[in-house]
Amino acid sequence: xxxxxxxxxxxxxxxxxxxxxxxxxxxxxxxxxxxxxxxxxxxxxxxxxxxxxxxxxxxxxxxxxxxxxxxxxxxxxxxxxxxxxxxxxxxxxxxxxxxxxxxxxxxxxxxxxxxxxxxxxxxxxxxxxxxxxxxxxxxxxxxxxxxxxxxxxxxxxxxxxxxxxxxxxxxxxxxxxxxxxxxxxxxxxxxxxxxxxxxxxxxxxxxxxxxxxxxxxxxxxxxxxxxxxxxxxxxxxxxxxxxxxxxxxxxxxxxxxxxxxxxxxxxxxxxxxxxxxxxxxxxxxxxxxxxxxxxxxxxxxxxxxxxxxxxxxxxxxxxxxx
Length: 322
What we know:
This protein is α/β, with parallel strands linked by helices. It has 11 helices and 15 strands. The protein folds into 2 domains: 150 residues, Alpha-Beta Complex (Quinone Oxidoreductase, Chain A, domain 1), CATH 3.90.180.10; 142 residues, NAD(P)-binding Rossmann-like Domain (Rossmann fold, 3-Layer(aba) Sandwich). β14, α11 and β15 form a beta-alpha-beta unit.
């Protein structure tokens, strides 16, 4: 079968190759799935580059989330059937066929399109877990940068449902209109010299108690500059690729806390994760949650797809098809 692979860590646009591999055979408790769509996530690109929290042995097949059709059942599998569409977090998804744990494969309701199903777990679940981790209540103000990213948009939706107020920072003036077109307000572009004053105007001077940083570099410092005393800044990503830069004055005199969040090492209880996944499936089934795909590439175009995924200003994920 055809599969994407990389034999060394580096720029995904340079190291990804299409190779021929044996079609995997499902073991006990597994199913083999024929790939329909697999989104390209930032953590996929970071893993390929060798800068993520885990490094797979090489050569490796990337891809951590997908939607596909069950093609074969392993021994003891009784909860799924051949021909059934399933979704969820997996490994080695960028191939014509991949293996999945039958207990974790989530059946896809007919009302959910492939684009939404293929990315329903990773980013939406992270947004829900992040909101819970922030430990805020209705009426609280939080602030996030990279607000026009997938998690940023979803966090607005879930925070709004909980009555939590969000200030959204974007790096380009065009990002304000982009989010407004999606019905997301309270957006400020940091291109503006007076962006801090704009933030204060939006909150009416109310304290901003939490911040979510996805940029790294000077991102946390910028959030702290408008956050309240004893605020917490949660580091979720590092789009800049730079080390976090923090002044001691900001930490000392605001008595602030900066800490990390990694969904793979979350303290969220399994029962809560199951509940959140159920909420996501219900929302997708009703049409309340739709996740767009901007472009779809074939497996033989994985390098071009990775390059396209890294471009700013996208309105949806880039995905690979089987």
